[in-house]
């Protein structure tokens, strides 16, 4: 396989996952805010700033310019914004086109359907009353694509490369969501006097990661900062946790590099090192300095992505 084609497959997986996470974060935050128990969590600027922060866009400095219509359009259907959902879906299709002979017809047709749904979605309808329909369809279509990947591709190098992209992006988006909700919880605490550990924002974070029900089943109590972070960061049995993503990345790296020889400059070594650091960590160690953890993990994931591309996809 050409390194260029492998790189296209890797980024196809990343863009699929990125599209879904942006849509899910917008959907959950917007509609959860309608039922939020405190006024600050229901305010539009608070919700819109959270969306922008998670998507890597600097929050608006002037709240008069931070209109709901502008933010929703910018994050979803603005073709000039490289971080928007429509841009990510376009990149997904472009990368799929470049690797057409290595993926199944079923997967390619689903990507095409995904692309045309987003491309033809009427912006006026979306801005006024289409957020629910649009975001739910993005989430469902992304799930269909992952199902096509798992059920129609050979579980070989092609599959491993796509899943490397999916899991690396999932870990990245999880940390970005934790960062955004951590900032939200701090702001909300100052506004309504609730304790940081019992903020409503931790419940929202779990719903953003589709992990609320399983977290309640596991702990059998209302989410707190400690239990939420432990479940989403350290629990390897949660399919969207950081540890699960790192385990998946390591497993798929071994498909591409199965030598198991000592090489401290390899991607497998770096992934194993990061994974080992958190495998036996106590959540209290992380909660004590969440911002340091967030900054450090984002650097680690960026280093893993760069090293992975240099080792396997450089052309």
Automatic annotation (TrEMBL):
Superkingdom of the organism of origin: Bacteria
Domain DUF403 positions: 1-313
PANTHER family listed in its UniProt record: BLR5612 PROTEIN (PTHR34595), SLL1039 PROTEIN (PTHR34595:SF7)
Official protein name in the record: Alpha-E domain-containing protein
The organism of origin for this protein: Muriicola jejuensis
